Amino acid sequence: MAPVRMIYLALAIWGAVHPMYYFITWFQANTWDIMAMVDAWHVNAATSGLVWDLTIAALALTVWITSEVAVRRNWSALIAIPATFCIGVSCGLPLYLFLRSRPVQ
Question: What pTM does this model have?
């Protein structure tokens, strides 16, 4: 595997594990209610801005993935979309770059 591909894969794994640690820590300290976490994301203008920033980035990534998959026919790359919305952009983007950068056969 090319070294850059391995960096993308490492970043995807890190982007899945590291943020999840904080989410699970929060859930254990508070409740396992997802709406309570959403409320916590909007506790002030700074966190609301960050939530919207990541939401817009996730939507832009989704548009990019779907438009490229339609051209490249790299259907397995679609897995980056649920990774983006279920885990986060920090996982979905490097995962997509990893899947996109595989050698052409």
Answer: 0.87
The position carrying tokens 């890190």 is 14
CA distance 74 to 56: 24
CA distance linking residue 31 with residue 36, whole number of Å:
7
Q: Is 103 left (phi over 0), alpha (psi -120 to 50) or beta?
A: beta
- pLDDT tens profile 15-38: 999 999 999 999 999 988 889 999
**Cα distance between residue 105 and residue 58, in whole Å:** 29
Main-chain phi, psi angles of 77, to 5 degrees: -70, -15
What length does the chain have? 105
Return left, alpha or beta for 88; rule: phi > 0 is left, psi -120 to 50 is alpha, else beta.
Answer: left
